């Protein structure tokens, strides 16, 4: 049974080429999309606050001039929900069909809309579809995600599990929480909560950051479904989850979560997690300033860096010379600087291996270091170390050149 989210469809046909982007890993040789449909897809990828992924653009018939189907993944509950958006290239003004995967066969978006009456139908993005409006696909995707969220809440709410009913009633009023029922063939059912943490704007805390989407840190909590009441229910699995951008700010994996005590609920557990996490974020923001001061302290000794990370200050490269021998020094500065020291890599500008790649040293961490030194003293000690180490590196380069 195929679930479709549209009100009146015309005959099937074909579509046109969307501009590839970082969110569209599409490499197939399928025909392009029609301009009207490509404009909607490009608008979705450029302006949606959701990190939607395009999995595939394809044609529904052989030898078609245009593709007419787009497989997209919509982020939900720290995972993705996949669906096919099916346009009609022969009649591109017709609203598309949306078909979800077999795992979501019970999800009926049209039924959910109709059950709320005519007022809800009139507000649907599928009502009076305007193919010339590039924002319509984005509105449809957001609407479907909201409907899917309510569908998953209803599924979890229908479970005969006293603990989950309590967690749902106490936590769902909290803004931004998402929940879903996970059914796997090789294990019993589980319920997954995604709880956004910290009431602070991480994007604004990092000066001059170029993060496109709003960055969040979530606590993932997975409860096993219990069909009968137990005085000692099993503790859930808990894990911090964040985007890759947040991981460049500080290491989520290094944050130690408190134990889940017997009889504990999410409302009791979350405050301790957030208090600890807030301290980690404050330290990570302060570390950016420390790294920036360290990079600035390199200039009086090494000269102005050739390259430097201007936002998070995680990297810098300087040009050095010892007589006629010139080389680069790459600084990789950890997020926990100054508690942890930078890693250095020396790279010759005159010696190359058999593949034509400049010869580089192994990572260097055995130089004089103390987290108590101020940035100028730290830079000076590194400079003095490299004055001697560059001679060893020059010999290493000469020995590494293939004969």
From TrEMBL:
<keyword id="KW-0539">Nucleus</keyword>
<keyword id="KW-0131">Cell cycle</keyword>
<keyword id="KW-0053">Apoptosis</keyword>
<dbReference type="GO" id="GO:0005737">
    <property type="term" value="C:cytoplasm"/>
</dbReference>
<comment type="similarity">
    <text>Belongs to the BABAM2 family.</text>
</comment>
<keyword id="KW-0963">Cytoplasm</keyword>
<feature type="region of interest" description="Disordered">
    <location>
        <begin position="1"/>
        <end position="27"/>
    </location>
</feature>
<keyword id="KW-0498">Mitosis</keyword>
<dbReference type="Pfam" id="PF06113">
    <property type="entry name" value="BRE"/>
</dbReference>
<keyword id="KW-0234">DNA repair</keyword>
<protein>
    <recommendedName>
        <fullName>BRISC and BRCA1-A complex member 2</fullName>
    </recommendedName>
</protein>
<keyword id="KW-0833">Ubl conjugation pathway</keyword>
<keyword id="KW-0227">DNA damage</keyword>
<dbReference type="GO" id="GO:0070552">
    <property type="term" value="C:BRISC complex"/>
</dbReference>
<dbReference type="GO" id="GO:0006325">
    <property type="term" value="P:chromatin organization"/>
</dbReference>
<dbReference type="InterPro" id="IPR010358">
    <property type="entry name" value="BRE"/>
</dbReference>
<dbReference type="GO" id="GO:0051301">
    <property type="term" value="P:cell division"/>
</dbReference>
<keyword id="KW-0156">Chromatin regulator</keyword>
<keyword id="KW-0132">Cell division</keyword>
<dbReference type="GO" id="GO:0006302">
    <property type="term" value="P:double-strand break repair"/>
</dbReference>
<keyword id="KW-0677">Repeat</keyword>
């Amino acid at each position: 049974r195929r679930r479709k989210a549209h009100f009146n469809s015309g005959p099937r046909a074909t579509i046109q080429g969307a501009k590839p982007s970082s969110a569209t890993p599409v490499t197939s040789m399928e025909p392009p999309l029609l301009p009207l449909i490509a404009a909607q897809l490009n608008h979705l990828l450029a302006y949606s606050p959701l990190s939607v992924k395009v999995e595939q653009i394809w044609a529904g018939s052989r030898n078609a001039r245009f593709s007419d189907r787009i497989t997209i993944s919509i982020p939900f509950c720290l995972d993705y929900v996949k669906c096919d958006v099916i346009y009609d290239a022969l009649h591109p003004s017709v609203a598309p069909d949306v078909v979800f995967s077999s795992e979501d066969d019970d999800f009926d978006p049209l039924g959910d809309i109709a059950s709320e009456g005519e007022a809800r139908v009139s507000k649907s993005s599928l009502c009076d579809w305007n193919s010339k409006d590039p924002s319509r696909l984005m509105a449809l995707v957001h609407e479907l995600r909201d409907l899917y969220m309510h569908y998953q809440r209803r599924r979890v709410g229908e479970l005969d599990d006293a603990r989950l009913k309590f967690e749902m009633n106490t936590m769902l009023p909290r803004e931004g929480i998402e929940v879903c029922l996970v059914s796997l063939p090789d294990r019993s059912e589980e319920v997954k909560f995604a709880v956004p943490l910290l009431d602070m704007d991480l994007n604004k805390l990092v000066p001059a950051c170029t993060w496109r989407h709003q960055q969040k840190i979530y606590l993932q909590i997975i409860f096993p479904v219990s069909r009968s009441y137990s005085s000692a229910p099993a503790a859930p699995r808990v894990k911090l989850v964040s985007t890759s951008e947040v991981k460049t700010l500080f290491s989520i994996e290094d944050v130690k979560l408190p134990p889940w005590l017997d009889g504990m609920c999410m409302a009791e557990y979350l405050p301790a997690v957030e208090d600890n996490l807030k301290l980690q974020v404050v330290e990570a923001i302060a570390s950016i300033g420390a790294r920036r001061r360290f990079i600035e302290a390199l200039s009086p000794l090494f000269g102005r860096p050739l390259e430097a990370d201007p936002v998070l200050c995680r990297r810098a490269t300087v040009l050095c010379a010892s007589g006629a021998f010139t080389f680069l020094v790459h600084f990789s500065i950890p997020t926990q600087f100054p508690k942890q020291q930078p890693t250095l890599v020396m790279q010759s500008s005159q010696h190359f291996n058999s593949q034509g790649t400049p010869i580089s040293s192994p990572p260097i961490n055995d130089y004089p270091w103390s987290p108590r030194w101020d940035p100028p003293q730290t830079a000076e000690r590194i400079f003095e170390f490299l004055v001697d180490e560059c001679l060893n590196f020059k010999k290493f380069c000469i020995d590494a050149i293939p004969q």
